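Before relying on records like the one below, remember that each one covers exactly one chain. Contacts with other chains, cofactors or solvent are not represented anywhere in the record.
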Amino acid sequence: MTEPLLTIRDLSIEGRQGRAWQPILRGVDLELRRGEVLGLIGESGAGKSTLGLAAMGYTRDGTRIAGGEITFDGMDLRALGARRLRGLRGRRIAYVAQSAAANFNPSQRLIDQYTEAPVDIHQLRTRPEAAREARELYARLRLPEPDVIGFRYPHQVSGGQLQRAMTAMAMSCEPDLIIFDEPTTALDVTTQIEVLRAIRDAVREIGTAAIYITHDLAVVAQMADRIKVLLRGEEVEEQPTRAMLAAPREAYSRSLWAVRSFRAPEHSVPPAGATPVLRVAGVTAEYSPGTPVLQDVSFDVHSGRTVAVVGESGSGKSTAARVITGLLPAVSGRIELDGTPLPPRLARRDPAALRQVQMIHQSADTALNPKHTIREILGRPLRFYLGLRGPAREARIRELLADIELDPDDFIGRTPAALSGGQKQRIGIARALAAEPRLIICDEVTSALDQLVAEGILKLLTRLQEVRGLAYMFITHDLATVRAIADHVVVMQHGRVVEQGPKDEMFRPPHHPYTRLLLTSVPDMDPDWLDRTIAERQES
């Protein structure tokens, strides 16, 4: 057997809390050989990303390595100086972060950020060579218009497209080891298949070793040779993938494999002629003249009900939200709130209308100001929309924290950096609730969360809806989430609504061909599913 490329022994990492240091990882071991993929799974806060970053000899601010060994290709990473570590990172060890939006420079084009590592930092390619390779990788990762998409800025592409661009960047120097930290979290199921295939093929062709961090157990089943389960910083067990899927040894591992059963209560169909909270009527919109990104889109959202809008990356889901909120004025059609047309432009809407439509964003990391405390984050909408100040505002902040099931005394003075992913998303919910809206647009709010935390968020949103009669427009590519919470489903493709109807009807055949494609693109726990699905589609 070949020597390991990466060896981690008895690794302990601590994080600062006030003046004390608390354990994050406790004595974890890891071995990885060239061409091998290790899957890391576990719930939020298990230490997966901390372990992945440690494989680069890196720890986040406020954390430290308290003990253990990290050896990469015979080199002790803990003993290397900063200059030699910089020479390894990006060149021989690459990292694909979970939140692409937070890791791109918004002022530089995608192609310039791709070429930075192979050309400017490591001098491995000329700029024309690197640009050519970028276009080839963009095509393999199924990015639209691969020859020209690199000339766009990060804000001009969808979240899923940006995640694929980051994956291409990590592969730019053909590294020996890539740490994939939730690389397909932001992708719809149809695109995910092609990206998983491209990642796996690239790993095999280059002979790269990979650590694949994910909370999606069906995805790790397709990608990993072995699976390691973590819980609260400790290793629970590690087995070859097929053995782990067939017979996990530990009770915690078996709990991760259990099928989540949460379903929101069914809501009655609104009576004929009832006025919806939101009406989107024949909306067409475009980013550049003559090139529509939405075409004749129509749907209603009624009080106390949830409309799920689904479709692949670039289908127009988030663009529809931008039109509804006034960030992108419609070219034609109208947006109505409680039967009253809204001005197309955000600047023309009065504060009362602004208050009634709020949004919870996909990436809490970029949606919450990292410099502000939770008191400041929640206090701002209370002051802006409701005019609350002083003790009244403080009391309402505390009520909101209690509503989202966070202890006010513990959380009110924290900043977002001191919160887990699920806690940040709860703060995003509280900020939306602060305005006392009629409608909340939830944009992929559970996509970055593990199954246990995501289920908690769905339960919270459902409870708040039942208590407050909220209307939800739920943008998602996760069909399991649609089954759990939706009353009505709108399927979008290429900026159009291709099918819509009550949830139960949408999941029963016959289906529109595109809806059928979505339903058959949801991975299952069979390690052969990806190969079989790709083969079936090539034959058809």
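The mean pLDDT is 90.
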